[in-house]
Backbone:
């Protein structure tokens, strides 16, 4: 009985310690960001690694998700004779939900895991220790640029995902299934609100970008410095980021659209 | 040097693509020009019944959207609903004796506030109240009235 | 070898443990300026930990470490980083940054800390690489280097800022005889030429004894013996004798602590 309590306590303390270290890490990362404006070169390299390299999978997925939405939406809406509103359906689901969420999930799988593996291996091969002994703070020099790059890239990736998705829905709905071109756009423009839908989508993707990059860097930085430790940390990054994105999406949606 | 240059070009095109996508979402998908930015002036209108009118429902004149419903409250003394309407500031020439009605778009569509212009020389401004209103038509009430009048017809025969 | 002046590094009554495992319990060390001091002991005695403690990467449970008159663990972050610029450390793996070339690795601390013009850095880097004999390898990526070469590049990098001392973590482990010879020669000659102070952590008795001016032997969290290499080789202390001669059994037992063999066998 007492043993069980003690075990529960130990788990609780472990989790609290984890959360505490995570926040301290975030704080020192944020402390390193101002210095980046003096050396934008570091940031450019990381935007390449985090953003440009995630482009292909985001673009392809976005287009296909939009096409599927167009196809499915058409069949459902045409039963009510409302296929004119296809544009609204495609755009609303993409801009509000699918764009930020699916882009973030893909981002966690593509960029997040790569970040964790990179930082974890730098730890395992003593590169981080080496930097410290060279009087270079690895959190500021290695983690901060990656963090900022994730924060910048995520909303852009989500926007690309949504925009290409709308194009994909347009291609299927208007091009293949014969929905009226004008109605597709005008209905969409009438119903999609810049503030309500687009801004909120961007805010969502900013939050997701922050959380995914933070988790990836935390897992990498505190990974056990062995090959097994790094591989576990990489798995944890993908699992934790995905869960965090889905959970946060619910909370954010309730805050933004629930009234 | 050329490798870092091509990397810069790639990063530049990525960021440009992202901003173009954002611009596309803002302009083409959501139509920035008709966006309500929260600016404009507030006027109040009292209704006996607002039906299923919601906050952010459109406010129109002659079918053109001029604003949105900003808030809905209940006045416990007069048993009326107080609806505040935010009218965009460029529509500043609405007569103060205009008539506010709650309409339904289509048979089952959403409800909105329609303004019919009156003949006054004075225009609505911040804080004014629209005194002439017509409540929402509630489908059950209409059906009830219809059945009642039919029953009365039957009795009189 | 100058006279015994004020030591550069002074370790006093150092205690450190990791979890339940006690690593140091009361270690006292003096590292003399200009000397090559070797710290020896069997694997797992925390020799690398000692270097990390001196570098301020780890914090002791109690006791003090003074480097050049400053208490490492009382310094603020800024002062600690300032001090680290004057210490070089050569990691066992080399710890080169794998995504940039050999040249950029050596240039790294210069670019981070000096603000020198690029032409100047170029010359300095070539000089440092020349000193370790790898000027020709400047455009290679670290992945293309052998273990010994990587360590030499790391040595050039550790010396880039002309530090007052260099700490070597197991520099001789896993090297073929030729690179071993090269490293032994480099460490010795660099120390003499640049008036460095060197700390060499190692368990390779032969190589270390060749270059060291003074040797500490650590076992089970304590300094068990110390002296000049010649004294150590001929020491009568049973522990030192076993370690220096590499005898399989002695004070450090061959067997990991266990119950009596008979009991273990008959137990079940």
Residues:
């Amino acid at each position: 009985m007492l043993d069980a309590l003690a075990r529960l306590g130990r788990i609780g303390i472990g989790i609290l310690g984890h959360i505490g270290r995570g926040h301290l890490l975030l704080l020192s990362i944020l402390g390193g960001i101002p210095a980046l404006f003096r050396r934008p070169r570091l940031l450019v390299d990381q935007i390449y690694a985090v953003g440009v390299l995630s482009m292909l999978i985001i673009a392809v997925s976005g287009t296909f998700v939009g096409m599927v939405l167009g196809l499915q939406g058409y069949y459902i809406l045409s039963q009510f004779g409302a296929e004119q509103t296809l544009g609204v359906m495609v755009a609303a689901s993409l801009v509000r939900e699918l764009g930020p969420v699916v882009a973030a999930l893909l981002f966690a799988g593509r960029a997040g895991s790569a970040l964790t593996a990179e930082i974890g291996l730098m730890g395992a091969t003593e590169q981080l220790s080496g930097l410290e002994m060279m009087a270079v703070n690895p959190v500021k020099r290695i983690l901060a640029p990656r963090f900022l790059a994730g924060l910048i890239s995520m909303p852009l990736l989500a926007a690309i995902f949504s925009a290409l998705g709308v194009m994909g829905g347009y291609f299927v709905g208007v091009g293949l299934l014969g929905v009226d071109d004008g109605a597709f756009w005008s209905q969409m423009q009438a119903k999609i609100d810049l503030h309500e839908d687009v801004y909120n989508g961007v805010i969502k993707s900013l939050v997701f970008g922050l959380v995914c990059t933070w988790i990836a860097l935390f897992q990498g930085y505190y990974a056990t410095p062995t090959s097994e430790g790094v591989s576990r940390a990489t798995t944890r990054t993908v699992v934790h980021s995905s869960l965090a994105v889905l959970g946060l999406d619910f909370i954010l949606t309730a805050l933004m659209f629930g009234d | 040097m050329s490798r870092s240059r091509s990397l810069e070009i790639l990063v530049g095109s990525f960021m440009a693509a992202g901003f173009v996508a954002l611009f596309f979402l803002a302009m083409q998908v959501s139509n920035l020009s008709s966006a309500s930015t929260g600016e404009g002036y507030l006027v109040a209108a009292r209704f006996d019944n607002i039906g299923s009118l919601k906050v952010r429902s459109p406010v129109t004149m002659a079918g053109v959207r001029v604003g949105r419903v900003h808030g809905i409250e209940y006045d416990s003394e007069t048993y009326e609903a107080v609806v505040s309407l935010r009218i965009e500031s460029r529509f500043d020439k609405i007569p103060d004796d205009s008539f506010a009605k709650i309409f339904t778009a289509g048979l089952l569509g959403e409800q909105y506030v329609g303004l019919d212009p009156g003949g006054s020389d004075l225009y609505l401004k911040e804080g004014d109240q629209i005194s002439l209103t017509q409540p929402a038509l509630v489908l059950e009430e209409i059906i009830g009235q219809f059945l009642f009048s039919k029953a009365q017809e039957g009795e009189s025969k | 070898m100058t006279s015994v002046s004020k030591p550069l590094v002074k370790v006093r009554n150092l205690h450190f443990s990791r979890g339940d495992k006690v690593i140091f319990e009361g270690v006292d060390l003096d590292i003399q300026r200009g000397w090559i001091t070797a710290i020896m002991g069997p694997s797992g005695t925390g020799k690398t930990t000692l270097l990390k403690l001196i570098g301020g990467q780890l914090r002791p449970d109690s006791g003090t470490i003074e480097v050049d008159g400053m208490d490492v663990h009382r310094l603020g972050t800024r002062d600690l980083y300032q001090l680290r610029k004057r210490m070089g450390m050569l990691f066992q793996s080399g710890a080169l940054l794998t995504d940039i070339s050999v040249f950029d690795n050596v240039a790294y601390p210069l670019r981070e800390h000096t603000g020198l013009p690029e032409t100047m850095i170029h010359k300095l880097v070539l000089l440092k690489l020349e000193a370790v004999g790898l000027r020709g390898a400047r455009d290679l990526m670290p992945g293309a280097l052998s273990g010994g070469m990587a360590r030499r590049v790391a040595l050039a990098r550790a010396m880039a800022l002309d530090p007052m001392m260099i700490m070597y973590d197991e520099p001789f482990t896993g090297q073929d005889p030729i690179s071993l010879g090269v490293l032994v020669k480099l460490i010795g000659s660099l120390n003499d030429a640049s008036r460095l102070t060197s700390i060499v952590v190692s368990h390779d008795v032969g190589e270390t004894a060749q270059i060291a001016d003074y040797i500490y032997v650590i076992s089970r969290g304590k300094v068990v013996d110390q002296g000049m290499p010649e004294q150590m080789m001929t020491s009568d202390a049973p522990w030192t004798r076993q370690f220096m001669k590499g005898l399989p059994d002695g004070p450090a037992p061959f067997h990991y602590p266990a119950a009596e063999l008979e009991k273990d066998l008959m137990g079940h």
Q: What stands out?
A: The beta strands of chain B are 41-47, 58-61, 64-75, 80-87, 99-104, 111-116, 129-130, 132-134.
